[in-house]
Design goal:
The protein has a single domain, classed as Alpha-D-Glucose-1,6-Bisphosphate, Chain A, domain 4 (2-Layer Sandwich), CATH 3.30.530.20. The protein is built from three helices and seven strands; from the N terminus they run βααββββββα. The protein has a seven-stranded antiparallel sheet with strand order 1-7-6-5-4-3-2. The longest helix has about 35 residues.
Length: about 160
Amino acid sequence: MQPLTIRKEIDIDAPIDRVWWFVGTQEGNLARHRAESVPNRWEYQDELLEERVGGRYELRGVFEGKPFHIVGQVVAYDPPRLLALTWREQDWPADTLVTFRLTEEAGRTRLTVIHSGFENLPPEYRHRAFEEYEAGRQRGFEALQALLSRSSSQVR
């Protein structure tokens, strides 16, 4: 079976530590997810990110009127450059893997997000899940850009 992997990259006009806060910390992740929320479509309500290898990850919310619960485990944690965690919705029989890589050059940060393992999901919902997460990763980038723009204008 061919791998189903989402790979998204964005260049952000912000230092790596500012971007990392929204990607690699519990508080920042929850702020980013809440900024992504669209009432009555998808809402992120609670998040746990234990900031260490072996730490737990959980995300709860509502998607299209149905509650969801995502669980995982941190498998790589190297601030401010790398976070990788397993990702499994409550009805999935297998984990997927989400990896956030950050690199900095001249005060700008490149964020690469790779979400792999969708091919391990049952055929009846594999492609739908892949497409929903691909759109979700794009919304996440847009929310992150908006949050960083707001925080930059507040600092000035």
